[in-house]
Amino acid sequence: xxxxxxxxxxxxxxxxxxxxxxxxxxxxxxxxxxxxxxxxxxxxxxxxxxxxxxxxxxxxxxxxxxxxxxxxxxxxxxxxxxxxxxxxxxxxxxxxxxxxxxxxxxxxxxxxxxxxxxxxxxxxxxxxxxxxxxxxxxxxxxxxxxxxxxxxxxxxxxxxxxxxxxxxxxxxxxxxxxxxxxxxxxxxxxxxxxxxxxxxxxxxxxxxxxxxxxxxxxx
Amino acid sequence: xxxxxxxxxxxxxxxxxxxxxxxxxxxxxxxxxxxxxxxxxxxxxxxxxxxxxxxxxxxxxxxxxxxxxxxxxxxxxxxxxxxxxxxxxxxxxxxxxxxxxxxxxxxxxxxxxxxxxxxxxxxxxxxxxxxxxxxxxxxxxxxxxxxxxxxxxxxxxxxxxxxxxxxxxxxxxxxxxxxxxxxxxxxxxxxxxxxxxxxxxxxxxxxxxxxxxxxxxxxxxxxxxxxx
Lengths: 219, 228
Fold this sequence. Notes:
The structure holds two protein chains of two kinds.
Chain A lengths: L1 H5 L10 H4 L2 H18 L2 H17 L8 H21 L1 H23 L3 H12 L9 H31 L6 H25 L21
Helix pairs in contact in A: 3-6, 4-6, 5-6, 7-8, 8-9
Chain B lengths: L11 H8 L2 H4 L20 H19 L3 E3 L3 E3 L2 H29 L20 H24 L4 H28 L4 H9 L2 H21 L9
Antiparallel strand pairs in B: 1-2
Helix pairs in contact in B: 3-4, 4-5, 4-8, 5-6, 6-7, 6-8
């Protein structure tokens, strides 16, 4: 199954200095760099940033990865660049397209050099300071993990439904391709919810006991 | 003597009577419970969390899968279908939470966006507005379809379709156009023209969302019940 393998993400293991920088520092660098580029909008700055980003790819020994986003994005970028060159001149076109490429490349380097589990943990850590607003990092982390676990199941299920629709000659019927997938997804969610409730996992801290299962509508 | 009744000859109690609210007369009823205890912040049960997680995964799965071929062979991705379904089936709170979870995971760098890309980089891309609009879109379609489900059992298909269309025209398209104007530096007419390319597919997907929604509510009537 393609999905489960690809979901491991773009991560390229390695021991370079870039790999060893803490996630918080990397994320802050990406945010600051992107905001600077997008707010100041200057060509010399863009050139400097692109050289800097290429340098970091080289330091991470991932130079051959640096052009990969372009492989997916080039039609949009070409269209956008052509339109900007026609309406606002070549400098504007270079700036708009270059800024997008620089931001995407910087964000991608973070993903290439950080294991996905660390990314998920980092996301949960972001919820921690929001505790006073009623955020619940534990339950947030649980839901995130459940989501990650459900993606391969749903990709498989969609594939299966597509095959059975094909067998019935319905591969062009959107209804036959989607309804079974969503119904299975709801059933899967209810089973998982029951299993969690039976083990007392994921209930709100202040709730009086095991919550209502899907069998009850309202407490 | 109440100042207002001074000189009118009416007893104070009578004035007081007129000022009373009707329910102050009736014997006190116990305070009504909040109407949506399960959608209040932090009160989601494990069953709710599980639905949120699975619908976030559904949006991710439909972003990753190749589109389904329609009519003239133009493939159509089902990402926005899943966004609308989250709102229709789970309601505004849980629907928006599911889509928000998908978005957060993608922005954090989990490869769940189309084409197996992810990370903060998409926020600089031309389609950032559409992506960010998913959360208010799920919320809006959830609110509108909650209205539909409460009011009527008949004609759910056209009404849910109308709810999805309404939600996409008050959220997805305005925010998408704004994103094009900010990130791609297009002026309004150009951004609107680019946006209009999505309209036919949008109509089809919203209709499909209503069809799937009705089927799911037939299979799981409790999801359409009032407590959602």
